[in-house]
């Protein structure tokens, strides 16, 4: 076992209304309206950026610092260009960029390996500021892996909202590997539920794999090792396919295709080469060598893709020596 985190992650950025709420909830464990989640991230600080004064005031009840109000506080008017200018022209832009270094120094971290950024696409602040922040971080932290998580709007929010969202996703992918998290895809067939319940369901389905991934990355209870150079090699700028399974027993890993994966976005053919991130939480006695051997083939079958390279991280969960989180990070070539 290692005595230090495998991957050093000092901060989790949230940009825009939804991105800020998800980042704050992941770290503090308290969601909108005081709703609590069972798992939260420790030793990571949220950095929340919004053009809405109301958002920042609501977040300040649970996050006591690293809150940045950009623009005049009245929002970006669903205009990504205004959100982009609000960020680029903000006097605290340099301070926002320096947050990973500042927090890493405060926590005694000797390095910065991963900088995740959640941003809400489809509106103004997230669509405009999110990709620009990813660009700034990629330039200022060349030895760290910068990872975007882009939330895409519900279908009922209209075609113009979706158009803005996908433009923001495309811009983000030019600067950093980015996971698309489609609200409509995550909600599935649950269209008849209460609107607030639908929002909470989407947030939970984003938070669960996100927190599982970051807990595994930052765990000191590692069995195998992933370095930031490994992340940068396999997580290239562009779209990232992300999947998550929670299995009651490790024997079920041998047949993952029989289970429904909570893929954060539907697989789109035509991407060509993309990055992938697979998170598997196995209960019982943990992984066997035979189960681990079968994983790449299982993922290839599920993705209908060729796995070109893969790196595996196994960690024990704090609450049980017999519970493992397996992260498989690899390059994928999708079949046409």
Explain what this protein looks like in three dimensions.
The protein is of the alpha/beta class. It has helices at 16-28, 53-59, 80-88, 93-106, 125-140, 159-175, 183-187, 195-218, 228-234, 289-303, and strands at residues 11-15, 45-50, 67-69, 114-120, 145-152, 177-182, 238-247, 273-282, 305-317, 320-334. The chain has two domains: 11-218, Rossmann fold; 236-334, no CATH class. The protein is built from ten helices and ten strands. A ten-stranded mixed beta sheet has the order 3-2-1-4-5-6-7-8-10-9, with helices on both faces. Strand 2 (45-50), helix 2 (53-59) and strand 3 (67-69) form a beta-alpha-beta unit. The longest helix is centred in the middle third of the chain and has 24 residues, at 195-218. The N and C termini lie far apart (42 Å).
Strand order, sheet with most strands: 3-2-1-4-5-6-7-8-10-9
Low-confidence stretches: none
The CATH class of the largest domain is: Alpha Beta
Number of strands: 10
The shape is: globular
Major sheet attributes? 10 strands, mixed
Q: Which series of helices and strands comes N to C?
A: EHEHEHHEHEHEHHHEEHEE
Average pLDDT works out at 85
Descriptive key words:
336 residues; alpha/beta; 25% strand; 10-stranded mixed sheet; Rossmann fold
Quick structural gist:
The protein has two domains: 11-218, Rossmann fold, CATH 3.40.50.1440; 236-334, no CATH class. Helix content is 38%, strand content 25%. It has ten helices and ten strands.
């Amino acid at each position: 076992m290692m005595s230090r985190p495998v991957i050093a992650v000092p901060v989790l950025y949230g940009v825009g209304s939804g991105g800020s709420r998800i980042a704050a909830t992941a770290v503090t464990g308290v969601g909108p309206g005081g709703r609590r989640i069972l798992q939260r991230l420790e030793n990571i600080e949220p950095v929340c950026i919004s053009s809405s004064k109301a958002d920042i005031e609501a977040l300040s009840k649970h996050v006591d610092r690293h809150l940045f109000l950009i623009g005049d506080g009245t929002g970006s008017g669903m205009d990504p260009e205004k959100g982009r200018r609000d960020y680029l022209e903000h006097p605290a832009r340099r301070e926002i960029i320096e947050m990973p270094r500042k927090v890493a120094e405060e926590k005694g971290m000797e390095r910065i390996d991963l900088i995740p950024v959640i941003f809400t696409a489809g509106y103004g602040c997230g669509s405009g500021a999110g990709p620009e922040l990813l660009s700034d971080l990629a330039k200022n932290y060349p030895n760290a892996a910068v990872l975007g998580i882009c939330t895409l709007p519900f279908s009922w929010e209209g075609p113009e909202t979706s158009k803005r969202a996908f433009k923001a996703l495309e811009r983000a992918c030019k600067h950093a590997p980015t996971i698309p998290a489609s609200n409509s895809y995550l909600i599935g067939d649950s269209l008849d539920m209460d609107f607030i319940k639908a929002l909470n369901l989407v947030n939970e389905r984003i938070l669960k794999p996100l927190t599982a991934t970051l807990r595994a990355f930052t765990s000191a209870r590692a069995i195998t090792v992933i370095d930031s150079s490994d992340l940068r090699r396999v997580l290239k700028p562009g779209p990232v396919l992300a999947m998550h399974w929670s299995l009651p027993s490790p024997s079920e890993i041998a047949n993952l295709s029989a289970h429904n994966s909570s893929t954060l976005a539907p697989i789109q053919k035509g991407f060509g080469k993309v990055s992938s991130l697979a998170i598997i939480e196995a209960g019982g006695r943990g992984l066997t060598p035979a189960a681990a051997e079968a994983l790449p083939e299982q993922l290839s079958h599920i993705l209908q893709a060729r796995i070109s390279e893969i790196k595996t991280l196994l960690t024990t969960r704090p609450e049980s020596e017999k519970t493992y989180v397996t992260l498989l990070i690899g390059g994928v070539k999708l079949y046409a």
